[in-house]
Amino acid sequence: MTQVDIPVESPVRPVQHLDKNFINHSKGFLSWALTLDHKRIGLMYLAGISLSFFLGGLFALAIRLELFSPGMQFMDAETYNQVFTLHGAVMVFLFIIPGIPAALGNVVLPLMLGAKDVAFPRLNLCSYYLWLSGAAFFIWTLFSNGLDTGWTFYTPYSTSYTDTSVIQATAGVFMLGFSSIFTGLNFLVTIHKMRPPGMTWHKLPLFLWGMYGTAIMQLLATPVLGITLLLLIMETTLGIGIFDPQKGGDPVLYQHFFWFYSHPAVYIMILPAMAVVSEIIAAFSRKHIFGYRMIAYSSVSIALLSFLVWGHHMFVSSESTLATLIFSAITFTIAIPSAIKVFNWLATLYKGSVALDTPMLYALGFMWLFTIGGLTGLFLAVLSTDVVLHDTYFVVAHFHYVMVGGTLFAFLGGLHYWWPKMTGKMYSETSGRIAAVTAFIGFNLAFFPQFIMGSRGMPRRYADYTADFELYHRLSTTGTLILGVGLALLAYTLLRSLFGGKKAPANPWGSATIEWECPSPPPHHNFDHPPLATDPYDMERVEWDEEVQGYVPAVGHRPTAH
Amino acid sequence: MSDAHGHGDKPFLAHHFEDEDHQFDSGKLGIWAFLVTEILFFSGLFCAYVIYRAMHPEVFTFASNALDTQMGAINTGVLIFSSLTAAWAVRNAQLGQKTGLIVNLSITILCAFGFMGIKYLEYSHKFDKGLFPGDKYEAKEGAYGDESKGNANTVAFTSPDEEESAEEAEPGVAFSNGDSAEAALAEEDGEELAPWNDPNVPEATKRKLKIFFGIYFCMTGLHGIHVLIGILVLGWLLTRAIRGHFTPTYYGPIDFAALYWHLVDLIWIYLFPLLYLIN
What ipTM does the predicted assembly reach? Predict the structure, then answer.
């Protein structure tokens, strides 16, 4: 590998702050609403998905409070169905799927490439407005008849029996799908075409490898969801028979179509999370990431394998024995690249000088929770146990460990990690850490009991239960409240930093990726000249500088070939 | 606006690209990626088609008689010709031939309108015969071709697995032998009623004829929407071409729109035999 020369002496400290940055370089509502700047679009996404998360969280709280005791507390069964449906749909489509790519990715991805913007800035803005329209349709759903099909819109219930607003909701998801496709398309082209000089594929930061894998899945899987929902809408409005057996259709076909998207979608949710965690683990271990290529390739192999496992959602939906066997076997293989990542992160921590800053706490939490979530996934991939565990709280606990413990924690870790870069402000480390630990404890208390009650037969989606399960449900509700307190403290910490926080240096954590080379927050055009890319995990490249309270390029450091 | 993305002397070079080639290459990769998503978007429909045709081959061969092969063939020709003019337009743009570009784009757009016009005629013929998608479906006499001439094409309404029993059964009772709902149309026997209005034909069988039209209207309708989008895009590019925006160093949008147009054409080239030419 070629050595890249950087100047031996760097007597001038890099600029830490600028008077004119992307946040204040122009003013007024339209300068935001019509902006083509990826950073502003990212921040608008961040505001939108945070509100969606809050809304979905309120639904979650309502579910847990209703389930605190057996019998119906404050809602009837129909309302309960609507609340859990909207909780799932809002969280999945409005928050988790766009969360890391659209909000954090939009801000960070071009910066990491040293590029001035994503490849197609107008498409990027279009994708944001598609998201907004999709969200508006969900709000419409809320204020019309609600939605009670479950977030999966299974037919024929959704097409022929329910009288709730399936059309609005599916039309909303259709738009959100295209928003996701356009984001993926943009990122794919940006990563291909806008890398700075010196950034070969094997010097691509792992965050970008993760986003690349995500983009592949967004491009290839989401259109199938689009056409499926379009057919569902046609069936509901015109009565053509594709999915409803009464009309000559086949409901299992819907499940195949739906999961052909929605299983890759699970990885659309988790791959970006793994991508964030790879960055955080390396930065806060102050050590070169272990097994760079293995982590990078495992991202792409997860993306490809994700297309081959959708059938494991239909083990009990009249799938043939042969098909279940094949899907079960492929599902096991997907554990391999996931485990490769976890082992490499562990090896990175080993003998690193680990700093337990807030982002790192979330990343470590992610490793625990994702591992639990991933291993319990194997229980569900085994055909015989799945027959027992299917549609129980075991499944609920499993995917919450992956999606909340995995994606949400990584999202929050990434949010804290890049917060100084995005806003130019440092948050209170103490209250950030307290929030992280509280959320971790609350999360485990909320969802671990669900594994136990699920394995003892508590079915999912039921509004009521027998007294046998009361203890577990009470623990779970208590955990939810603790998690809520943690998240509230987190929101307070971050919002407070906007007004009272210290100014952030360009590189507060000592990371070696390019986005930390521009001032915090970055100027409108990010970089005047494309920076020269070297090894993104060469942590020796930067050293602590007392005066700027951050890291600056190390004097006299020559990069080593890795 | 402060977000202006121009380069001064190169008004259409966005600020975040190094040069025109960089911009063109990025756009090219982008449009190819988009075409891949388009193919997957249609793949759901093709998949549904394959499954239902495999399940009910007799329904597809029979119901396809209601489609007007002649019009479909003309439309195929129109679209292929428009693909030629679209490709020609790209060449014009590369060579900086403004007039040729305008002419070829205009012909492409006219062809697209022609396609939609013929499609409109086809759809209205179907609706006249009661061949609607979904619940409104109510096939009228003659909807599946002119039986009085003994059109051999209509013989096909025989389910493979029921063929034997249908042959053994007396004419006229073939449709009422139980709920198995598979029907045979013995065309040779002039007394037979067509299955869509024979009271003896079970509802389940009639419903299957509807499946074909559900799929037909979904596939051609979605394709038609893509033609409409193509008209909008090409129309916008035509106005830009008239204003002289395109040069041999900046012709990306023409190239990308032409690629999209070729895909729309290609999808029709699959739809035509799959729907019209089953026999």
Answer: 0.91
Determine whether the interchain pair A224/B30 forms a contact, defined as Cβ–Cβ distance below 8 Å: no
In A9-113, at which residue ranges do the beta strands (DSSP E only) sit? none
Name the percent of chain A lying above pLDDT 90. 82
CATH code for the part of the protein at A38-357+502-553:
1.20.210.10
Domain of residue B232, CATH code: 1.20.120.80
CB contact under 8 A, B15 and A117: yes
If one counts the domains in chain B, the total is 1
Provide the shortest C-alpha distance from residue B183 to chain A (in Å): 15
Q: Model confidence over B111-168: pLDDT tens digits?
A: 999 999 999 999 998 888 878 887 777 777 667 765 444 444 444 444 444 444 444 4
- Report residue A553: phi and psi, to 5°: -55, 135
In a mutagenesis test of the A interface, which of B3, B17, B39 is the best target, namely the one with the most A β-carbons within 10 Å? Answer: B3
Q: Map A497-519 to HEC letters.
A: HHHHCEECCCCCCCCCCHHHHCC
Please answer yes or no on whether A121 and B5 come within 8 Å at the CB atom.
Answer: yes
CA distance A514 to A108: 10
Q: Does residue B18 sit within a domain? A: no
Mutation target among A24, A34, A117, A189 for the B interface, most CBs of B within 10 A? A189
- Domain hosting B52: range is 25-140+203-276
Is there a contact between A231 and B48 if contact means CB atoms under 8 Å apart? Answer: yes
- Specify if B254 maps to a domain: yes
What pLDDT, in 10s, does the model give residues A308-366?
999 999 999 888 999 999 999 999 999 999 999 999 999 999 999 999 999 999 999 99
pLDDT in tens, B14-71: 888 988 999 999 999 999 999 999 999 999 999 999 999 998 888 888 888 888 899 9
Upper half-sphere CA count for residue B123 (Cβ side, 13 Å): 15
